[in-house]
């Protein structure tokens, strides 16, 4: 992952340095692409090895050398949990309670674990 040089005040861009060419660049936008996994035609059409086919890969590239850095992967289940977390956080901001904070933390941890598992499954699927 590139080295963080400084965090700008507006959460829109961050100055980073590429691990490969060491060129500094401003990270201001991420790219999103659908991930298509090689699928066995006899398997469930909705999933591949238990992985939902509707997978999105969020990443960015170094503008100097083009090296790609993966931020994360999501699927329908993860995006639903993220939407639920945003809902809980909105409720928490209007009327904070310990139960809502605990629920938000549990959702955050579940999302983190699901993303880690999905990343491993996607990146090792063809290997």
Summary, kept brief:
This protein is α+β, with helices and mostly antiparallel strands and 127 residues long. It contains two helices and eight strands. The longest helix has 27 residues, at 98-124.
Description of the molecule:
The chain has helices spanning 76-94, 98-124, and strands at 3-7, 14-17, 24-27, 31-35, 47-48, 51-52, 55-61, 68-74. The chain has 127 residues and is an alpha+beta fold. It has one domain. A hairpin with a 6-residue loop joins strand 1 (3-7) and strand 2 (14-17). It starts with a strand and ends with a helix.
Keywords:
single chain, 127 residues, alpha+beta, three-stranded antiparallel sheet, 2 helices, Transglycosylase
Domains (count):
1
Shape: globular
How far the N terminus sits from the C terminus, by CA atoms, comes to: 22 Å
What helical percentage do the residues reach?
25-40%
Tell me about the largest β-sheet: 3 strands, antiparallel
Give the integer mean of the pLDDT values: 83
Which structural category fits the helices and strands? alpha+beta
Report the C-alpha radius of gyration, rounded. Answer: 18 Å
- Determine the strand fraction and express it as a percent band: 25-35%
Discrete helix count: 2
What's the β-strand tally?
8
Protein name: Transglycosylase
